[in-house]
Amino acid sequence: MKVIFLGAPGSGKGTHATRVKLALDVPHISTGDIFRENIKGGTPLGLLAKSYIDKGALVPDEVVIKIVADRLSREDCKKGFILDGFPRTIRQAEELKKIADIDVVINLVVDDEAIVKRVAGRRMCRCGETYNVAFLNGSNVCAKCGGELYQRDDDKEETVKSRLEVYHKETAPLIDYYRKEGLLKDVDGAQSIDKVYADILKVLQ
After folding, report:
1. Is residue 69 part of a domain?
2. What CA–CA distance (Å, rounded) separates 187 from 42?
3. 3-state secondary structure of 35
4. CATH code, 70
5. Which of 122, 156, 161, 179 is catalytic?
6. Three-class secondary structure of residue 200 per DSSP
7. Can 152 be counted among the known catalytic residues?
């Protein structure tokens, strides 16, 4: 099955895509992860991507399309995949249509105020664990490895608001695009994680 997750930054796309990939046994492809790997490796692409991401802006279409097309051509995508963070523009959606037949687009619906609170409260550990300050009780230590937690630059409140503005301008039109294609399914992303996951599984059935 070939699935796209849509939703504003912080709506839970990555969290749920990670769970759904286990249920479907297909790869979860996140453009954010691809860019972070390149940023960590200090590649030219990574440095270019970082200059946009740090400002809360979108990485140019031509760069993203090339990376995604290459990823989808690999053997592990033959029986399906989950796309998270792509497409982000109508142009990207049209280019994707040339290389893949999408089965369903899941749109996670969460209002901006809840997203700002959720994302600005997010804390990361170098080991990969993610937390929210609402559940840390003042702690700044990872429960898994004991490492110090930190806030990513693109999780700061000002940047989150900027990313939401960009999302509404550039990415939200995809909702209408895929609704017209008959592929879009809305899911209330403000519910508990387990309830959202259960609703997503119903859509995929």
Report:
1. yes
2. 37
3. helix
4. 3.40.50.300
5. 122
6. helix
7. yes
Active site residue 179: no
* Total number of domains constituting the chain: 1
Q: Is 163 a catalytic residue?
A: yes
Q: Would residue 139 count as lying in a domain?
A: no
Catalytic, out of 21, 50, 88, 123: 88
pLDDT in tens, the chain (205 residues): 999 999 998 898 988 998 999 999 999 998 877 778 778 888 887 888 888 888 888 788 887 887 788 789 889 999 999 999 899 889 999 999 999 999 999 999 999 999 998 888 889 999 988 898 888 988 899 999 999 999 988 888 998 999 899 888 888 899 999 999 999 999 999 998 899 999 999 999 8
**Of residues 71, 102, 83, the one with CA closest to residue 28:** 83
Does 74 map to a domain?
yes
Residues 200/192, Cβ–Cβ less than 8 Å: no
Residue 36 within any structural domain of the chain: yes
The active-site residue, picked from 55, 71, 117, 152, is 152
Assess contact for 109 and 7: CB atoms under 8 A: yes
Domain hosting residue 13, numbered range: 2-111+165-204
Active site includes 88?
A: yes
CA 136 to chain centre: 24
Assess whether 13 carries a catalytic annotation.
yes
